[in-house]
Amino acid sequence: MNKRLPLSPPSRHWILLYWIFFALFFLPLILSHQIGLCLGLFIFSGVLFFIPTLLPNDSLFGPIITRFSTKEKAVWLTFDDGPDPQDTPRILDLLDYYQAKATFFVIGAKAKEHPHLIQEILRRGHSIGNHTHSHPVSTFWIALPHQLRRELSLCQQTITQIAPLATPTLFRAPVGMINFFLHPILSEQKLTLVGWSARGFDTVADSPKKVVQRIWEKVSPGAIILLHEGITPTQNGERMAPQILERLLQKLSQEHYQCLLPNKPKKSSSNHGYHGSHGFSTSSESSENE
Ligand SMILES: [Zn+2]
């Protein structure tokens, strides 16, 4: 596939800024033969250029949803890295018990292995998002356009084959890292990038209580909560994800929070905004970010 990559407006602005920076700083140096200083500045600017790729929820390269607008006490639960044959069924039962809805950002290769879990997630009224085909954590930030396109499209194809009416419209990047080429490819595949506003670092924590405490510090109406499936079990061999979810749902229920799926985004007149009664808002519009 040698499709030409259309650049989204944020990417175009970023490239323009880069060239202005280049012209202002490098050309006079080159002309005055200060090659050492020029090389140092070139390396420094390169580092600056890649910093946004390593910052979760950074909107410099394009819009990312980190909250949704709501007048009610409501949050959006999201699960990454599934489906998981041990965690997903227990998570689904807990969500049913507390009448909560969630979005599962699934890995395409795992979805292919467990198609019945994808069907079950949808049958119980939840939604599915794209979380790449192979979850390339260490290389996603630096992947080339053809590699990104393959990761996103293979996951889209897998989910569409399993559930033809549930082709994802939402995407979450592995570990939230943003790649410079990502937004044009998201546009091509009609995907909207979703980040989060509350997380408890559940993949590295050893205590469900601590995870829920960390999440709770960021919970407010419109928060997007990041959780994971398939987390390494505790030393006793207990599954972490269902324990964290049960504690969190208990706390949300005590505080009269609903867990709902925000409305499908409708493009507003601005480049970045999505609105609705429970509509999305992007990081550039949100006051709280992580
Ligand atoms: Zn992930």
List keywords for this structure.
binds zinc ion; 290 residues; disordered N terminus; 41% helix; TIM Barrel; 2 domains; six-stranded parallel sheet; 9 helices; two-stranded antiparallel sheet; alpha/beta; single chain
Notes on the protein architecture:
This protein has 290 residues and is an alpha/beta fold. It folds into two domains: 9-54; 65-282, TIM Barrel (Alpha-Beta Barrel). It contains nine helices and ten strands. It has helices at 9-31, 35-54, 87-97, 108-113, 115-123, 145-162, 182-188, 208-216, 240-254; strands at residues 65-68, 74-82, 102-106, 127-130, 170-171, 192-193, 198-199, 224-228, 258-259, 280-282. The strands form three sheets. Strands 2, 3, 4, 7, 8 and 9 form a six-stranded parallel β-sheet that branches. The site of zinc ion (ZN) has 5 residues, from strand 2. Zinc ion is lined by residues 80-81, 131, 135, 174.
Runs in which pLDDT lies below 50 for 5 or more consecutive residues are 1-7, 267-276, 283-290
Classify the helix fraction into a percent range.
Answer: 40-55%
- Structural class by helix and strand composition: alpha/beta
The CATH first-level class of the largest domain comes to: Alpha Beta
Identify the CATH architecture of the largest domain: Alpha-Beta Barrel
Percent strand equals: 5-15%
Task: Tally the helices.
Answer: 9
Count of discrete structural domains: 2
Ligands bound to this protein structure: zinc ion
Shape estimate:
elongated
In this structure, how is the largest beta sheet organized?
6 strands, parallel
Helix-strand sequence: HHEEHEHHEHEHEEHEHEE
Could you give me the name of the CATH homologous superfamily of the largest domain?
Answer: Glycoside hydrolase/deacetylase
Rounded mean pLDDT is 84
As a whole number of angstroms, the C-alpha radius of gyration is 20 Å
Work out the number of β strands: 10
Task: Please name the CATH topology of the largest domain.
Answer: TIM Barrel
Cα-to-Cα separation, first versus last residue: 36 Å
